[in-house]
């Protein structure tokens, strides 16, 4: 079930003119009701007037992963970020029913908690190419580097390398710097762990402070995961309120070294599969 909205009504929202409404200022991070699963598409707030860059946030409940679908309203060219194998059918159906030309499926890093849907998605959508950081060690059609552009219609996502959670973590910044997709590097009021997959607390701290926190204060930040029902935050909010990243480097490293988290349940399956673009023999 996509949502209470019909596909037709979502299509109207995405591909026709979106009338901007001025809303009173509201606090970040945004949330949905944590008691309700979010297995439906969530139309991202049009607070920057992006009537021609519809962006949809989708959710996979088992790993609490957010997948993002961005489209150019006029050309219908689209990009998907961090698709998940378990929601492959939903995402492919959604792309086809909206009449989108999905060009690139990009992973923000080699995930350890779920298997990417990228490889299987390529088999169902003609011409789709996969992309991931060249530092990830994973197979993909496009090996991304710092400063590369992922274009769709007249829009682009700029690749910024933000290692620390893994060597191959990237943040994808919309060309006008109004929004960014931070993967597992920066989470809402948190950050990715650094105790496996070449993790480094020092590098993560540097990545966030020297890359993400250099974006405009009102830049909207969309993470790859959230476990509390939160959907979006801003650079300004995280610089001010993130309980880990407001610390100095020494304090941050100490926090990260003492998290003592259990390893992801699917790490032994997910990492080998994701090194092969999610395709297994």
UniProtKB/TrEMBL annotation:
One of its GO terms (molecular function) is metal ion binding. It catalyses: S-sulfanylglutathione + O2 + H2O = sulfite + glutathione + 2 H(+). Its EC number is 1.13.11.18. One of its GO terms (cellular component) is mitochondrion. GO terms for biological process: glutathione metabolic process; hydrogen sulfide metabolic process. Residues 64-225 form the Metallo-beta-lactamase domain. Residues 1-20 form the signal peptide. Gene3D superfamilies: Ribonuclease Z/Hydroxyacylglutathione hydrolase-like. It holds the Pfam family Lactamase_B. Its cofactor is Fe(2+). It is found in: Mitochondrion. Keywords: Acetylation, Dioxygenase, Iron, Metal-binding, Mitochondrion, Oxidoreductase, Signal, Transit peptide. Homodimer. Monomer. Interacts with TST. May interact with RELA. Belongs to the metallo-beta-lactamase superfamily. Glyoxalase II family. This is Persulfide dioxygenase ETHE1, mitochondrial. It comes from Xiphophorus couchianus. The lineage of its organism: Eukaryota, Metazoa, Chordata, Craniata, Vertebrata.
């Amino acid at each position: 079930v996509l949502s209470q909205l019909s596909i037709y009504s979502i299509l109207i929202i995405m591909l026709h003119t979106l009338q901007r409404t001025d809303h009173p200022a509201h606090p970040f991070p945004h949330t949905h009701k944590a008691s309700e699963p979010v297995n439906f598409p969530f139309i991202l707030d049009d607070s920057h007037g992006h009537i021609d860059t519809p962006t949809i946030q989708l959710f996979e409940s088992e790993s609490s992963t957010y997948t993002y679908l961005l489209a150019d309203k006029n050309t219908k060219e689209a990009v998907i970020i961090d698709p998940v194998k378990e929601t492959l059918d939903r995402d492919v159906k959604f792309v086809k029913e909206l009449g989108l030309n999905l060009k690139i499926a990009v992973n923000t890093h080699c995930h350890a908690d779920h298997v990417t849907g990228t490889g299987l998605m390529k088999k169902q959508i003609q011409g789709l190419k996969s992309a991931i950081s060249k530092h990830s060690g994973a197979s993909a059609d496009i090996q991304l580097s710092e400063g590369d552009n992922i274009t769709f219609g007249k829009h682009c996502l700029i690749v910024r390398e933000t290692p620390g959670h893994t060597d191959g973590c990237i943040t994808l910044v919309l060309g006008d710097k109004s929004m960014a997709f931070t993967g597992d590097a920066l989470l809402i009021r948190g950050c990715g762990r650094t105790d496996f997959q070449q993790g480094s607390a020092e590098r993560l701290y540097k990545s966030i402070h020297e890359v993400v926190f250099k974006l405009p204060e009102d830049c909207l930040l969309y993470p790859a995961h959230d476990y509390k029902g939160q959907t979006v935050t801003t650079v300004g909010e995280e610089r001010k309120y993130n309980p880990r990243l407001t610390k100095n480097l020494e304090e941050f490293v100490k926090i990260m070294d003492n998290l003592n988290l259990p390893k992801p349940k699917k790490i032994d399956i997910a990492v080998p599969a994701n090194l092969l673009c999610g395709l297994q023999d």
